[in-house]
Amino acid sequence: GVVENHVGKHTEKVVYLNFIDGMTLEPNADDQRFIVDAWAAGKFNLDVPKYCVTAAATVEKLNPGQKPCPWKAFIVTPSEPRFGPAEIVGALQGRGWSAEIQTQSRNAHQLVKVSPKGYLKCVDGRGSDAKGAQQHGPKMLGGVYGIAVNRGIKTTKELEAICKEVKDAGHVPTVHGDEGGILGCGFCKLWLNDKFADEGMVNESKPKFSADDGAKTVQKAGGVVENHVGKHTEKVVYLNFIDGMTLEPNADDQRFIVDAWAAGKFNLDVPKYCVTAAATVEKL
After folding, report:
1. Which end of the chain is less packed: N or C, by CB atoms within 10 Å?
2. What is the pLDDT of residue 84?
3. What's the pTM value of the predicted model, to 2 decimals?
4. How far apart are alpha carbons 195 and 205 in whole angstroms?
5. Nearest in space to 118 (alpha carbons), one of 175, 173, 160
């Protein structure tokens, strides 16, 4: 091996964490930066998160007592990283939630395959007039309204187009009400009352149509207006990333069911969609 000799004083203010396999950056004495080839930690079967935290701790301990932290980190990746379950856990915890990742095997007893007869229905955990395979469709916020809000649509014509898109994707488009009427869908009620207009990462104002007009549009497009029954008792939210699988609502053990994989299927902004889900539960 080699014993290398470095010269001069440290002037670094930036750390590069590089995840491009087989690539590195060249040190520049006139423009110093810490260069951490994180991909190499994986090559040598190291604990990568532990390695990156060690890198951060090293920089901090070499320059103790500096507050606020003067360091800036750049994470270099092959492409824009996918917003996945770990990031969602962090986002929820940042909102004060308790959140954890569970595996498919842990939930095998309650996951069911999506059926062609299944309603693309609301995440509402209550019972409804949907029966059997009708319950085995993707669960999205407010049914088709979840797609509508994410895309920022405002007209019934745009809503009708979404219903056609849902049918072409092999699902039955739906919205719902309850014994109190068509505004029994909390998500729909929040949207129509402009409660998402000032919500960070959502920022979508209300549409130009009423709940009744929305329901009629869905029916005209070949969809269903589902009816939910009973009071909300949900205390848990499931964000499901198992493609083509869902959970069946249980009126006796209610939980919000958000099939996050479906947001990807309809090319939605997934981070925005998940934040909308969290905001919906909080606002209800």
Report:
1. N
2. 79
3. 0.74
4. 8
5. 173
